[in-house]
Design a protein that fits this description.
single chain, mainly alpha, 10 helices
Length: about 190
């Protein structure tokens, strides 16, 4: 029996994205990542129990692969998803690769994504309690999420020792991107 509710699919998927060991901003592999075969097995089980559309399954799988540091496999899926959602994942993947210019190319293809307002809200809440007003102004100018500024912040953290202090905070912000996208993929593209 399948459960078509977006909430159920999201609740079942959330444990795949849980834990304090957040994905790196770059291509580094975490020891706690789920191996590819196991991850695909778990995803297949979720998809059998929930009536996610084929598009939603591809988006969720690409997101999970990216979260678990399977960048090449995520890239293969994302480049076949010809939508703003696929371009968003493609942009994150290239940001992690790192290929910052290519990430920005894909974020240009995203345009103004429906998830940007929720990402901005959550990042504003996260940064509201920190001393990082400069980062807040950079990432959320005029109250809107700036995906290009996130690429610049990640590049700066990778290339500059002073900016490297932002790495843990940028990983939390990257987690927000993943969470908001996963919520969208389960809600918007469910039968």
């Amino acid at each position: 029996m399948t459960d078509c509710s977006p909430h159920n699919a999201l609740m079942i998927l959330k444990p795949l994205f849980a834990g304090d060991d957040l994905p790196a901003l770059g291509p580094e592999l975490r020891t706690g990542r789920t191996p590819l075969a196991e991850l695909n097995r778990q995803l297949d089980g979720v998809f059998k129990k929930n009536a996610l559309s084929d598009d939603a399954q591809s988006l969720v799988r690409s997101t999970a692969l990216l979260w678990h540091d399977h960048l090449d496999e995520s890239h293969t899926l994302a480049q076949d998803i010809e939508s703003a959602d696929g371009s968003f994942l493609h942009g994150i993947m290239h940001r992690r690769e790192p290929d910052y210019a290519n990430a920005k190319y894909w974020f240009r293809r995203v345009g103004t994504h429906p998830s940007f307002s929720e990402i901005a809200r959550r990042v504003r809440d996260l940064l509201g309690s920190t001393n990082h007003g400069d980062l807040k102004r950079q990432l959320i100018p005029d109250g809107r999420w700036d995906a290009f500024a996130m690429v610049d912040a990640v590049e700066s953290a990778a290339c500059n020792r002073c900016a490297a202090d932002y790495d843990p905070l940028l990983r939390q912000i990257q987690r927000i991107e993943f969470e908001v996208l996963l919520e969208r993929f389960c809600a918007v593209t469910t039968h």
